[in-house]
Design a protein that fits this description.
Structural class of chain B: alpha+beta
Largest interface: A-B, 88 and 59 residues
Largest sheet of chain B: none
Distance between the termini of chain A: 49 Å
Number of domains of chain A: 2
Structural class of chain A: alpha+beta
Strand content of chain A: 35-45%
Number of strands of chain B: 3
Number of helices of chain A: 4
Helix content of chain B: 10-25%
Largest sheet of chain A: 7 strands, antiparallel
Order of helices and strands of chain A: EHHEHEEEHEEEEEEEEE
Radius of gyration of chain A: 18 Å
Order of helices and strands of chain B: EHEEH
Radius of gyration of chain B: 21 Å
Shape of chain A: globular
CATH class of the largest domain in chain A: Alpha Beta
CATH architecture of the largest domain in chain A: Alpha-Beta Barrel
CATH superfamily of the largest domain in chain A: Glycosidases
Number of strands of chain A: 14
Number of helices of chain B: 2
Oligomer: heterodimer
Shape of chain B: elongated
CATH topology of the largest domain in chain A: TIM Barrel
Strand content of chain B: 25-35%
């Protein structure tokens, strides 16, 4: 095969073998430096021969047949970081593997081809899409030892969308966001999880995930509540990011 | 560029009837201080215009990774 015959470089990705005792919901949301390094290698390799690269099959833990891990709220949080890592790494796209209605990963559960529900992972993908299209900007997070990530997408209309993911199990955060431009309006949409009767989110919960108080219907419809309004000051805006949540801050 | 195609998300206007986030959460949330700085430059200077397309492969079969290890 010659270089000119190659049109796309592809790679598969899974976080880990789900049958290992270490493959827990808590482990899923830990940073994956291997992914970042692998994406850099793929990007360099693809660029070297002038083709794009794509994560053509991927998801969280393969070999996971248990409930409360790949089908849990952990996957909602994990997939946001995964997608932004792929975008920052220059990937042209991702293909999520899934299907069926058993335990384990799938963004959309189906039974014999009929959709029966949006799984927690879908909500993370949805929040990622709500960040919109545009140019990714560099971010710097200062949150001590807390497991927090942030991403910024600048749209063609100069609006800025910032996604902050707080994966700490208990620590709520008050985050001061410093921006490269003055801000006149700021709103916030939050992805959260709360099971019936619970007082706090649960990483292993397999339901109760919402974006701005809304769930996704079986037919795909999604009607989130009104976004919260933040009060920006110059080039800064402050927002709360509760433990085990992700927020999308939309700035103009 | 982050170009997305896979989802018909049917998002309504988030701003309609918006309330102040602080009013809703300030009393309930004991937040430790953290900061996020957004730099005034793109993260993908060497990539240029690109896109991230999302697709779902719903085949209800084992992943290739599992098949390889069997």
């Amino acid at each position: 095969m010659t270089k000119s015959e190659i049109t796309l470089l592809t790679q598969h990705y899974y976080r880990a073998d789900g049958s290992l005792p270490t493959s827990t919901a808590a482990y899923l949301i830990t940073p994956d430096s291997t992914l970042v390094n692998d994406l850099a290698i793929l990007h360099a390799g693809a660029t070297g021969i002038g083709v794009p690269y794509r994560m053509s099959e991927c998801n969280s833990f393969y070999n996971d047949d248990s409930t409360g891990v790949c089908d849990s709220y952990a996957s909602s949080l994990w997939v946001i970081d995964y997608l932004f890592n792929c975008a920052q790494g220059g990937s042209s796209g991702v293909n999520f593997h899934g299907g069926g209605n058993s335990a384990g990963y799938t963004p959309i559960a189906d039974s014999s081809g009929t959709v029966v529900g949006a799984r927690p992972e879908y909500y993370g993908i949805l929040l990622f899409t709500l960040a919109g299209t545009g140019t990714l900007y560099l971010t710097q997070v200062s949150a001590g030892s807390f497991n927090v990530t942030a991403y910024a997408v600048k749209s063609s209309s100069s609006g800025l969308n910032v996604v902050i993911v707080n994966k700490d199990l208990a620590q709520n955060l008050q985050v001061a966001v410093s921006l490269p431009q003055r801000v006149s309006t700021a709103t916030l949409v939050a992805m959260t999880q709360l099971s019936s009767g619970a007082m706090a989110p649960s990483l292993s919960a397999t339901s109760g995930v919402m974006i701005q108080g809304a769930t996704v219907a079986v037919d795909g419809t999604f009607t989130p509540g009104a976004a919260y309004t933040l009060q920006p000051s110059g080039t800064q805006v402050t927002c709360y990011v509760p433990a085990l949540s992700a927020v999308l801050v939309q700035l103009t | 560029m982050v170009a997305l195609h896979a989802l018909d998300r049917r998002v309504d206007d988030f701003d309609r009837g918006a309330v102040l986030f602080e009013d809703t959460f300030a009393d309930a949330v004991d937040g430790r201080l953290a900061s996020v700085g957004v730099a005034d430059n793109a993260a993908l200077a060497d990539v240029g215009a690109t896109g991230l397309e999302l697709r779902l492969d719903e085949n209800d079969g084992p992943p290739a990774e599992r098949a390889w290890r069997r």
